């Protein structure tokens, strides 16, 4: 998962990660509202959420690729494990990712 404040940046991140086969699918949701601490202030911003489907083995490469193209100084990059899923979908995802 990552967020960004511009739809164009979310689109660019999604396209880049899918083209590199670091993600099989990325859903872009938004705008959403995020409230957070930044430089000793509470900030509220409209953002776009990128829900990235990948696999654990690609995390380091995925994180590096996001940092290279993300406009934020400290981008949110977090991994949420897939604990279960449809067999056909998970097979499709695995087949579409970098090996």
Automatic annotation (TrEMBL):
Record-annotated membrane-spanning stretches: none
Pfam families, A to Z: CutA1
MF (Gene Ontology): copper ion binding
Gene Ontology biological process terms in this record: response to metal ion
Entry-linked InterPro entries: Ion_tolerance_CutA (IPR004323), N-reg_PII-like_a/b (IPR011322), N-reg_PII/ATP_PRibTrfase_C (IPR015867)
Protein family: Belongs to the CutA family.
Protein name per UniProt: Divalent-cation tolerance protein CutA
